[in-house]
Amino acid sequence: MEVEALRTTVAEFGQEHLLDFWDELSDDQRQHLHSDISSLDLHDLTSVFERSTQSSEKSTTKKDDRLEPFPEDMIAAVARSTPEQLDEWRSVGLELVSEGHVAVLLLAGGQGTRLGVDYPKGMYDVGLPSGKTLYQLQAERIKKLEELAEERKGRRGKITWYIMTSDHTGGKTKEFFSCHNYFGLDSSDVVMFEQAMRPCMTFDGKIILDEKWKIARAPDGNGGLYRAVGQNGILDDMKKRGIKCMHIYGVDNILVKLADPVFMGYCYSRGADCAAKVVQKSFPTEAVGVVCKCDGKYQVVEYSEITIETAQKRGLDGRLTFNAGNICNHYLTVQFLEELIREHEPKLKHHVAKKKIPYVDKLGRRISPEQPNGFKLEKFVFDVFQFASNFQLFEVLREDEFSPMKNSPTAEKDTPATARSALMNLHYRYILQAGGSFRDGVGQVLPLIPLRRSNSQSVFEVECEISPLLSYAGEGLEETVRGNFYEAPLHLDVPSARDDGNGTAPDSKKMKTDGGK
Q1: pLDDT tens digit string along 494-507?
Q2: Residues 244, 238: Cα–Cα separation, whole Å
Q3: Nearest-angstrom CA–CA distance, 221 and 219
Q4: CA dihedral (265, 269, 272, 278) positive or negative
Q5: Which has the closest alpha carbon to 199: 223, 222, 221, 215?
Q6: CA atoms within 13 Å, Cβ hemisphere of 147
Q7: pLDDT in tens, 363-407
Q8: Closest CA relative to residue 355, chosen from 369, 374, 380
Q9: 106 near 345, Cβ under 8 Å?
Q10: 214-215 and 209-211 beta bridge pairing
């Protein structure tokens, strides 16, 4: 093992500290560190760091004068579409599913650190009556959508589920799916692959050591998807399966409609090569990126990059001018994905994220900092919008489709409690829309709009869960619930799940229209 040549190389780029503990290491540890350093393109890493930090400094300049709202003729909204339009798009989407032309691609490279756990977010139990995790909810939505497409179109197409993990989440995710028999899906239709890991760096450009013999690395952001798809043979796999388009989404949104046939059908009908689902901003200064045009190109502009005055601008209809909140919910064609990998991926810029990164100090002690001490270099999945020749937006209702679970239970928003509440409130509305009703313990009919308890972190008063295996998005419930009164907690599941003891929640009750007497 030639260490002197390695010393010369790291010294050329100001990274001599990587070998500070060489004499203390075992042979195996030396081999690991030698391989770790040798795998780096230090020239490229230094260049990327310099460009990214310079770009980050420039990004503090507001972009107001460079912004244009999204063209109205390139956006559709569920709330402003007729039932006939929605049915037409749904039919197109179900046709695509029935022919096996649709895939879903899950971005699952991040751990649940902010949730206070050391395992992947998808494995988190949010406290539903069923005890289902995010992974299970998503798997069951896929399975139900395949069934719906077969019922409506007469053909059973497969939806391939591609899951991008990282070095941090890959092993645990694979084990979790295997232990749960892929939640009823065919294992050959669940394809996992890992994104790349990039070295973490201090604010002055030094590579951080995680251990004396190991470089600290982090996933290269959700925009690492495009390189990972090319390098892991995923694009070729999509072509072999006859996939034409895909739905890309983040793991932490409990309300996500995987391969939503209305969304997929709209995009396909409009000939889009790329599209994004968005929600209206809750208020002008909400901390969410907005999709708009910047310098003539479609981009997501972060809330911190525009002034309050621009954020508060409104059109003649009273709606905010820059109102399209990004929710990491995208449509891509396979053809566009191939173009991105071949021509545009190298052009995607890296963004710097200040993070608290464990490190080895000069005395060889591993320190877990309380404040951000370094950068992680990341690419963003939405930075490809600018390359689309036909980009579309599809606005959905936040209460139906977006409730992310990002923060610990003690945080003020985007917690397991708020996500659980959002799902149960949606399912409560599904029951009411299908002709069912709820009564409390003394027989009083509950209101149409349930209220929170005084503690804002508590769940809605009505604990109600509907299995995705029973209904994908509220459809098909009339025969089961019409004319019935229910008491909470309620968990409606398919008969087979109830029979084997996996589906029912404790104390679920149904009362007939006579009050159950």
Answers
A1: 886 544 333 343 33
A2: 8
A3: 6
A4: negative
A5: 215
A6: 15
A7: 999 999 999 999 999 999 999 999 999 999 999 999 999 999 998
A8: 374
A9: no
A10: antiparallel
